[in-house]
Amino acid sequence: MPASGPTGVVHLATRSPELSGDQMVAALTPPPQFAHASFESYRADPAFPSQQEAKELLIAFAGGRTEAARGGLFRRRPKQPELKPGVYLDGGFGVGKTHLLAAIYHAMPVRRKYFGSFIEYTALVGALGYQNVVRLFTGADLLCIDEFELDDPGDTMVMTRLLGELVASGTRLAATSNTPPNALGEGRFAAQDFLREIHAMAESFQTIRIDGTDFRHRNVDGHAVALDAAEYAAAIESASGDGLVSDDAFDDVVAQLARVHPSRYIRLIDGVSLVGLRDVAVFTDQSAALRFVALVDRIYDAQIPIRATGTTLDRVFPEEMLAGGYRKKYLRAISRLVASTLA
Fold first, then answer.
1. What pTM, to 2 d.p., does this model score?
2. Going by DSSP bridges, is the β-strand pair 172-177/86-90 parallel, antiparallel, or unpaired?
3. 3-class DSSP state for residue 287?
4. pLDDT at residue 51 tops 60
5. pLDDT at 185
6. Which of 63-67, 101-105, 155-159 has the highest mean pLDDT?
7. Does Cell division show up as a keyword for this record (predicted)?
8. Residue 110's closest CA among 143, 147, 70, 148?
C-alpha cells in the first residue's frame, strides 16, 4: 500500500537512500531521547555513590564547576580535578552512561564537536575512506563515542588508529563501553579490555566506573512481543492513520540491508513512526544478523516502536551466535528489541 501525503504505509525493502559525507557528519549529534540531556537531569542513584562521583568528574571534564568546587561564600574551594584528554565510562546497561556522554556534548563550550555510536564512526570510515575521515575530524574539539565495540578487532584497531591521530592533534575524547549487565564484574573487565586494545593511547584515557542497576528494569533474557496476523494488521492500520509506518516481510528487510551501506540505515527509517515486520525468523547468516543489529540501533536511537509477527525478536539470534565473538552486540540488540516491541 503506497503512502499518501504525511500518513500511510511504506516499505523499507524498497527504499534505497543516498547519504552524502556531509549529511553523515551532520547526523553525528546525540539521538532524540538525549537531545536535551544535561548533568542537571541526570539522577544519580544514592545507593551507588559511583554515579554521583562520575557526574562530578564529567562536569569538570566538560569545563563546568562541580558542586564541591562551587562551595559556599566563605568556604575554601578545592582545586578542580585534572583529567586526561579522554574519559571512558565503564558500566552495564541502564546506569546512565549515554545520558552522561550526551551531557558532556551539550555542556562543553566548543565549536566543533561530534557524537555518534562506534558503528556510525566505523561506517563513516567505510564510506569515505580512512584518510578522508582523519582530515574531516582533525581540529575537532570533542569526539563522543557511544558503545565502543571491543568484540570486532578490525574495527577496533581502525578506531584506535583514528583516535590516536586525533588526540595527538588536540581533540578530547569521551567514550562508553558496550558491556551487558550479566558480564563478569558488570563491566570491570571491559575497562581492561578497552585499555589493552587502545594500548598506544591508553595513557590518554581516564576510566570512570559507574555502578548501578538498569533504570529501565529490563532483563536481557526477557521476551519481545509477537503479534498474530490480525493484531499486526490492526496495529499497522491504526498507526498509518496518524503517521508514516513501514510494513515488510522480515526476510525482505534483511535482504535490503545487504544492499544498503550501514551508514545509510538511518535514512531507511526516515519519517517512519512505527516499524512493522512480518514473519520474523531466526538468523542463519552472521553477516545478516550483524547488519540487523545495526538497524536495530538506529530504530532504538530514533525511539521508533516495532510491531512484528513470527518468532519473537529476542530469539532471532541462535545460541551459536550468542556464544560467539559478537555476543555483546546481540545482547544489546535483544535488550533494545524487547523495549521497542513494548513501546
1. 0.76
2. parallel
3. helix
4. yes
5. 40
6. 101-105
7. yes
8. 143
Q: Which CATH class is domain 46-209?
A: alpha beta
Q: Which three cell numbers stand for residue 165?
A: 591521530
The region that residue 22 occupies, defined by phi over 0 for left and psi between -120 and 50 for alpha, beta otherwise, is alpha
Question: Which of 261-286 are b and which e, b meaning 16 or more Cβ less than 10 Å from the residue's Cβ?
Answer: ebbbbbbbbeebbbbbbbebeebeeb
Residue 7's alpha-carbon distances to 231, 247, 277, in angstroms, are: 20, 13, 18
Q: Report the amino acid identity of residue 248.
A: D
The set of cell numbers assigned to 302 is 530514533
135 pLDDT band (50/70/90 cuts)?
A: very high
Cell numbers 539521538 correspond to 31
How far apart, in whole angstroms, are the C-alpha atoms of residue 170 and residue 224? Answer: 44
Number of residues that make up the chain: 343
Three-class HEC string of 34-97:
HCCCCCCCCCCCCCCHHHHHHHHHHHHHCCCCCHHHHCCCCCCCCCCCCCCCEEEEECCCCCCH
